[in-house]
Each structure stands twice: as structure tokens, then as C-alpha cells.
């Protein structure tokens, strides 16, 4: 028997995964998106993006899932309405909440019976308060509650993360309202935090900003390693063994990207400056280190190859991380833009993201159908995304295709044994922050 009637507004990564997972938990879920093509595909049973395990779970639960282009239909047919629309960066870094407020206007027009409006999108502190002001009449008529319930899933691991969260954060202006939403997560064994809307909104930003800080921190230490003859893989391991620090998000490389870490860092910096007139020195440094990281890799390539003009370089991996085809804020984009400016001829391959990348980069670079193609007549290969399959490529074959056997491991994915094998084959290997004696 279906448990609860859940509505999802915005069927992107978070919305669709939330909808499919709630269906898996036995709920009846109705999903809406403004993008009609997306809804047509979903109605045909086609998942519009790649995420590990999603298509399978989607098919398994198709009887509990429905899709509509009408927001009204979602509002009528659900008690808990999750808003999962995007909150992208504006040019000045602020979070653009236009989509969220468009949905709130529609909710204001269509709600006739009691509904929980749950904001899952990542939105700046104070947004739920503004939403409540807009929905004031409906709230006074006891028709609407506004809840903040940020999402912490990671793309590439999204289904697992949704089903096995470290915590659920529910922000509301009363314990009773928050508990009502906590029922949806009752089968989970993690802590469920019942807090204010402001607490919930800030927990989300602070978490992502902290993760970004860990990555920029280890990249800074990696840059120091290169100058003092230390090896970041050992240093990072040594730091991470301290349980107060932990070893997650301590892998040096080309820096962070994706739909959240950069956007949420920029949004927090902009919020501090404009809304609360506070200068976030640390957060600004985290962003700066990340922006410089791909440039340091290019510098390394130039030190070996000299002028890059007209030289062909192969790129392995484009998505912002393995397990997804998401290219939003992918470090590959920054790296490729800079290399194209240098006059480099680029050819790239990604196991999943070629199509998405082609739409973004158009004919600025060539795309390979298979990984070996990027090595033909190349002066260097740069690993940008640590897809596991890159470890198992035939590097003898790759070397035989290359003009110069230079391998830049922008993700430090090769361990010492593998690096020694590559060196024996004749490769010149460069990692990030690695001193390989
Ligand atoms: N992607 C992640 O890993 C992740 C993780 C945690 C939190 N978040 C947050 O969740 C939110 C959604 O992120 P996402 O990655 O799913 O974004 P997305 O861009 O993949 O999806 C947003 C969806 O909302 C739809 N949409 C936009 N305006 C709409 C409207 N007015 N009515 C109905 N649908 C509308 C879009 O068509 C799109 O399908 C963001 O605030 C993001 O910061 C994302």
C-alpha cells in the first residue's frame, strides 16, 4: 500500500532522484518539470541523464511514479510538495532563486487544501522567511507550512546517498511541523535534526563550503609539496588518519567542480558581502586556490613542452567527477578554455560526458569515440576525471601512438607501483604535489 502522497517540482538530478527514492520507499510520487521534453521522456520511461542505478530503480517503481507538465496536478495530488528547482549562480555569484519564487507564485494560486511545502533546493539563508511572507495568507488560513529540507547527495553516488544519509535536516518554525516531515524519513537510521529554517539553510551552505575548503586546503599543501620534495599522497594520508580531520575530500588534483561546491561557495561569499556586510576572507581564499589549480597543471605541461601552439594534447575525462555525465563547473572546462587560448589542438574522451561536453564546447575541440584515439599524434595526455577504466588502459599501446609519452595525472589516480611501470615504459609522469623518488 502507498504510504504518503508526495509531489516533486523540478525533475533534475535532485528532484528525480528524490522522487524515485521516495517511490522506492513505498510512496506515491507525482513529478513536474517546466521542461516539457523532459516530462515526455520520463512518461516514456526514459531517464534524461546518467546516474548510477537510477534507471533500474525508476523502472522498478514505475507504478508509483507519475509525471505531469501541470503544477496544479502535483498540488492537487500530493500532501508533501518538494521544490527541487535549480538555484544557479548569477554573474555576481549570488544564488538565482527566480525559479523557486516562480513555483511559490503557482503554489499561492493553486493550493486549496492543507499542504507541506518543502524546499529541497539549496537557497540562501532567509529564503524560507521570504517564502512565508509571500504565502502569508495561506499560512494564516492554515493551508500551508514552509519547511527547509536541504539535500546532501553526491552525484555518481546519489541513490546510495539518498537512501543512506549521514543526517536529515528539517527546518521549520515549530517542532510539530518539522516532525510531520520527519515521518517521511522514519525508516532511515541516521540522526534527524529538527531545527529552524535558518539553521537548515545555513547547515547546507556551511557543509558544502567546508568540503570545498578541504579540497583547496589539500591542493595548497600539494603545491607546497612540489616545492619541498614531499609527496602529497603520503602527506594527505598522514593528515587524514587524525580522526578529527578524516581522509575524505583530501585528494589533491585539478580542484573541485560540479553543480554545487563552486556555486554554493560563490553564493555564500556574495551573501556575506551584500546581505550581511561581512567579508568572508577564508571562503574567498578557498575559491581563489580552486581557480588557480588548473592553471598550475598547464604551467607544468608548458615547462616540458614549451610553446603549446599547434601541439596536440589528449584529454581523458570531462565530467566533473566519475559516475556522472554532469559538466556543470567541471574543471575540464576551465582547463580546456585555457589550453585553447594557448593555441593547443585538443582531443578529448569521456566514457559518459562526451555528448554533454560537445553541446557546451561545440567545435572548440575534437571528441574521441574511444580512449586510445586521444593518444594519436599527441604530445601529452592529461587525466582530468578519475574514471577507474583509465587505470586499465593499455599504456604500451598508448605510448606507441604518442609523439611524446607525457602523462599528466590531474587526479593523482595512479599509485606508486603503476607509476613505476609507466616510467619503465618510458612515460614522463606528472601528478599534483607528488615527489616520486
Ligand atoms: N546536483 C546535486 O548534486 C545537488 C546536491 C544537493 C543539492 N542540490 C541542489 O538542489 C537544487 C537542484 O539541483 P539539480 O542539480 O537537481 O538542478 P537541475 O538543474 O538538474 O534541475 C532543476 C530542474 O528544475 C526544473 N525547473 C526549473 N524551473 C522550474 C519551474 N519553475 N517549475 C518546474 N521545474 C522547474 C528544470 O527544468 C530542471 O529539470 C539546487 O538548488 C542544487 O543546489 C544539488
Short description:
With 437 residues, the chain is an alpha/beta fold. 43% of the residues lie in helices and 14% in strands.
How many domain regions? 2
Alpha plus pi helix count: 17
Strand order of the largest sheet: 3-2-1-4-5-6
For the residues shown, what is the average pLDDT?
96
Q: How would the global form be characterised? A: globular
| Second-tier CATH architecture of the largest domain | 3-Layer(aba) Sandwich
Give a count of the beta strands, DSSP E runs of length 2 or more: 14
Low-confidence stretches: none
Biggest pleated-sheet summary: 6 strands, parallel
Structural account:
Pathway: Nucleotide-sugar biosynthesis; UDP-alpha-D-glucuronate biosynthesis; UDP-alpha-D-glucuronate from UDP-alpha-D-glucose: step 1/1. One of its GO terms (biological process) is polysaccharide biosynthetic process. Its EC number is 1.1.1.22. By secondary structure, this protein is of the alpha/beta class. It has helices at about 15-25, 35-45, 55-60, 70-75, 100-110, 125-135, 135-140, 160-165, 175-180, 195-230, 230-240, 260-275, 280-305, 330-340, 355-360, 395-400, 415-425; strands at about 5-10, 30, 65-70, 80-85, 115-120, 145-150, 170, 190-195, 310-315, 345-350, 365, 380-385, 405-410, 430. The chain has a six-stranded parallel beta sheet with strand order 3-2-1-4-5-6, sandwiched between helices. α13 packs across α14 (about 330-340). The radius of gyration is 23 Å and the shape is globular. It binds nicotinamide-adenine-dinucleotide. The site of nicotinamide-adenine-dinucleotide has 26 residues, from α1 and α5.
Amino acid at each position: 500500500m502507498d504510504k504518503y502522497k508526495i509531489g516533486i517540482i523540478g525533475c533534475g538530478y535532485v528532484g528525480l532522484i528524490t522522487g524515485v527514492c521516495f517511490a522506492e520507499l513505498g510512496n506515491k510520487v507525482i513529478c513536474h518539470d517546466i521542461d516539457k521534453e523532459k516530462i515526455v521522456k520520463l512518461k516514456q520511461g526514459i531517464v534524461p541523464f546518467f546516474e548510477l542505478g537510477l534507471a533500474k530503480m525508476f523502472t522498478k517503481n514505475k507504478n508509483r511514479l507519475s509525471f505531469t507538465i501541470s503544477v496544479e496536478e502535483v498540488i492537487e495530488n500530493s500532501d508533501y510538495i518538494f521544490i527541487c528547482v535549480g538555484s544557479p549562480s548569477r554573474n555576481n555569484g549570488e544564488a538565482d532563486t527566480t525559479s523557486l519564487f516562480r513555483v511559490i507564485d503557482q503554489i499561492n494560486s493553486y493550493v486549496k487544501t492543507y499542504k507541506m511545502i518543502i524546499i529541497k533546493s539549496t537557497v540562501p539563508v532567509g529564503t524560507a522567511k521570504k517564502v512565508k511572507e509571500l504565502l502569508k495568507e495561506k499560512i494564516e488560513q492554515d493551508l500551508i507550512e514552509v519547511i527547509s529540507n536541504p539535500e546532501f547527495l553526491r552525484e555518481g553516488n546519489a541513490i546510495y546517498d539518498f537512501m543512506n544519509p549521514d543526517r536529515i535536516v528539517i527546518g521549520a518554525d515549530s517542532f510539530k511541523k518539522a516532525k510531520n516531515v520527519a515521518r517521511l524519513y522514519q525508516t532511515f537510521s541516521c540522526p534527524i535534526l529538527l531545527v529552524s529554517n535558518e539553521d537548515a539553510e545555513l547547515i547546507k551552505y556551511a557543509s558544502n563550503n567546508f568540503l570545498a575548503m578541504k579540497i583547496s586546503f589539500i591542493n595548497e599543501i600539494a603545491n607546497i609539496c612540489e616545492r619541498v620534495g614531499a609527496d602529497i599522497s603520503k602527506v594527505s594520508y598522514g593528515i587524514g588518519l587524525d580522526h578529527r580531520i578524516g581522509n575524505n575530500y583530501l585528494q589533491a588534483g585539478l580542484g573541485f567542480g560540479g553543480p554545487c561546491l563552486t556555486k554554493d561557495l560563490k553564493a555564500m561569499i556574495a551573501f556575506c558581502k551584500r546581505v550581511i556586510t561581512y567579508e568572508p576572507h577564508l571562503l574567498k581564499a578557498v575559491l581563489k586556490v580552486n581557480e588557480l589549480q588548473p592553471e598550475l597543471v598547464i604551467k607544468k605541461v608548458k615547462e616540458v613542452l614549451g610553446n603549446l601552439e599547434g601541439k596536440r594534447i589528449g584529454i581523458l575525462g570531462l565530467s566533473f567527477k566519475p559516475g556522472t555525465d554532469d559538466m556543470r563547473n567541471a574543471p575540464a572546462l576551465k582547463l580546456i578554455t585555457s589550453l585553447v587560448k594557448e593555441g593547443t589542438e585538443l582531443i578529448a574522451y569521456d566514457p559518459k560526458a562526451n555528448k554533454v561536453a560537445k553541446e557546451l564546447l561545440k567545435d572548440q575541440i575534437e571528441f574521441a569515440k574511444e580512449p586510445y584515439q586521444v593518444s594519436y599524434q599527441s604530445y601529452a595526455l592529461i587525466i582530468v576525471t578519475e574514471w577507474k577504466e583509465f587505470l586499465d588502459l593499455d599504456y604500451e599501446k598508448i605510448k606507441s601512438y604518442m609523439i611524446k609519452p607525457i602523462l599528466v595525472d590531474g587526479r593523482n589516480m595512479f599509485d606508486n607501483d603503476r607509476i613505476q611501470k609507466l616510467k619503465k615504459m618510458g612515460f614522463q609522469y606528472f601528478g599534483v604535489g607528488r615527489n616520486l623518488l
